Amino acid sequence: VLSHNLCTVLNVPHDPVALEEHFRDDDEGPVSNQGYMPYLNKFILEKVQGNFDKVEFNRMCWTLCAKKNLSKSPLLISDEDAFKVWVIFNFLSEDKYPLIIVPEEIEYLLKKLTEAMGAGWQQEQFDHYKIALNTSREGLSAWELIDLIGSGQFSKGMDRQTVSMAINEVFNELILDVLKQGYMLKKGHKRKNWTERWFVLKPNIISYYISEDLKDKKGDIILDGNCCVEALPDKDGKKCLFLIKCLDKSFEISASDKKKKQEWIQAIQTTVNLLRAGSPPPHKEARQKRKELRRKLLAEQEELERQMKELQTANENKQKELETVRKQLEAAAARAAEEEKKRLQTQVELQDRFSLELEREKMVRQKMEEQVAQKSSELEQYLQRVRELEEMYKQLQEALEDEKQARQDEETVRKLQARLLEEESAKRAELEKWHLQQQQTIQMTEAEKQELENQRMVKERALQVAMQQLEQLELERKEALAQYEEVKKKLETAANNTKSWKDKVAHHEGLIRLIEPGSKNPHLITNWGPAAFTEAELKQRQKSWKGKKATSE
After folding, report:
1. Looking at the domain assignment, is residue 298 inside a domain?
2. Where does the PH domain lie (predicted)?
3. CA 283, CA 179: separation in Å to the nearest integer?
4. Helix and strand tally (H, E) in the chain?
5. Phi and psi at residue 195, to the nearest 5°
6. Least confident of 99-113, 237-251, 401-415, 494-508
């Protein structure tokens, strides 16, 4: 039944054999929407020539879907008006499924209806409705649009008849392409009498009827690019005359007043100009321009969103780079703190070792003094010469100890100075590296200057602290150098004292030869005569010197 009705409305010959062949009973399952669409496209829609009544076709489609989808709540418009709104929706909706009408087209339609009703357009009211609509979805379906118009939200104060007339006027303009219509007088071609007719202006034709119900059509005026319209002076008691000239005929028409006359002349002339230019009707051209504008705005919005995403990605990358730089700076600060901690620990260890060496040296010196005191008590019986010689040897021993101690102090100071110089050079290289990193960070971008100002201040404070540490190391190096000079002077003094004592001993040994009682142990013989101590005492002193030397090394 559906296929036969479609063929009848679309003026397509119906082929029942093809229908039975396409929907024969087989094992592939029952008839479905997916199965009917190929038949509809192949056997019906591909054969449509365009010479069918589109209103009847729309009315058939409306019959199929209205009962299922139309709201059950009471509306201020009739079913016929709802049908016309549904057809207008199909004309203004977007070219994609499911069909919706966007807020811009809703505003256009409501403005048209308000203008047809003779009321004022409430822009603020529609803006509030548009905001509420955009927050939930992109547009309205056909049935939601019917509910919106039927609810009277934008036609408050208007009766049902006014709303119905407005819907009919918009329907005639947008769907039936009626550019203008109304009653006028037409002069006959044969009897030359004047008769009132209802004229309907469309993009390429003017039809005239007995009345506005369009049931009894009396004729057509075919329009093309060669037609023209011009005003005529009043004659034969008729006013507001104008003439429509075509290739084969001319038509004299009388309007009700001058305003109507001017409106009809302007409307007919505009229609002829559009035919000459090959342009579509104004409402269709305006609809196409609105679609192109929305498409352009959508493309610009997508491009703007793409640019925003790119900027956001670049910003995230920049944030990651800044985070990486911050982590590197924190790692550098941690390494510097660790190195400073190690340096302080090393300095404390050296101080402890130096204190231990001093204590050990004091103990050794105390033992040596005790041994010398013991020897001195044993040699009190010797002569004054022996006492003087022993005193000389004692002083020589102390001079040798001072010289040895001075050499040890010199070696310690030299090592300390070398370590301080290495630390100073390492710290200077690190400071130069920090300074170079700071210069590179400052030169990166001017936009990052404000963000990195706090980090630069932290690095400057670290640089100041490091400079203070460098100055402190410089002072320590100068102090160590001064100590080195002092020890060097002591070493030179001790060497001079040793040399003077050796000269004195040589002088005395050459002049005086001591006569001593014999000893049970064999005496050591030196260049100046018999030694003042035995071989066992010499070995003991050699062991003591070797121990001190090993400790100092």
Report:
1. no
2. 177-273
3. 9
4. 14, 9
5. -130, 140
6. 494-508
Share of the chain above pLDDT 70, in %: 90
Q: Residue 172's CB: how many other CB atoms inside 10 A?
A: 17
115-150, pLDDT tens digit by residue?
A: 888 888 888 888 888 888 776 677 888 888 888 888
C-alpha span between 58 and 175 (Å, rounded): 11
Whole-number Å distance between alpha carbons of 330 and 323: 10
Range of 15's domain? Answer: 1-167
Return the residue matching tokens 């400057």.
460
Output 32 or 67, whichever has higher pLDDT. 67
Give per-residue pLDDT as tens, 294-325: 888 888 888 888 899 999 988 899 999 999 99
Q: Which helix (H) or strand (E) holds 442?
A: helix 384-443
Locate 25 and state its tokens: 């009973």
Please tell me the distance from the alpha carbon of residue 268 to that of residue 201, in angstroms, as a whole number.
8
* Cβ atoms of 403 and 495 closer than 8 Å: yes
Distance CA 453, CA 455 (A): 5
Whether the CB-CB separation of 182 and 260 falls below 8 Å is answered with: yes
Classify each residue of 407-419 as buried b or exposed e, where b means 16 or more C-beta atoms within 10 Å of its C-beta: bbbbebbeebbeb
Whether residues 17 and 154 fall in one domain? yes
How far is the C-alpha of 465 from the C-alpha of 433, rounded, in Å?
15
**Is-cis flag, bond preceding 74, omega within 30?**
no
Judge contact between 134 and 128, C-beta under 8 A.
no
Structure tokens at 377: 């008590």
Tokens of 476: 């320590």
62 and 207 both lie in a single domain: no
Q: Which residue has the tokens 């929706």?
A: 89
Query: Is residue 243 one of the residues assigned to a domain?
Result: yes
Q: Say whether both 190 and 147 belong to one domain.
A: no
Cβ atoms of 424 and 473 within 8 Å: the answer is yes
Rounded Cα gap, residues 465 and 471, in angstroms: 10
Reduced to 3 states (helix: H, G, I; strand: E, B; else coil), residue 525 is strand
Yes or no: say if 142 and 102 are a contact pair by the CB < 8 Å rule. no
Question: Do the Cβ atoms of 509 and 529 come closer than 8 Å?
Answer: yes
Q: DSSP letter string over 446-509? A: STTTTTTHHHHHHHHHHHHHHHHHHHHHHHHHHHHHHHHHHHHHHHHHHHHHHHHHHHHHHHHH
Q: 206 near 221, Cβ under 8 Å?
A: yes
Residue 64 confidence (pLDDT) above 70: yes
Whether 473 is in a domain gets the answer no
Report the phi/psi class of residue 166: left, alpha or beta, with left for phi > 0 and alpha for psi in -120 to 50.
alpha
pTM of the model: 0.50
Dist. CA 224–CA 265, nearest whole Å: 15
Reduced to 3 states (helix: H, G, I; strand: E, B; else coil), residue 153 is: coil
Query: Which residues lie below 8 Å from residue 140, measured CB to CB, with a gap of 6+?
Result: 100, 101, 106, 133, 148
Helix axes 142-150, 103-117, angle to 10 degrees: 30
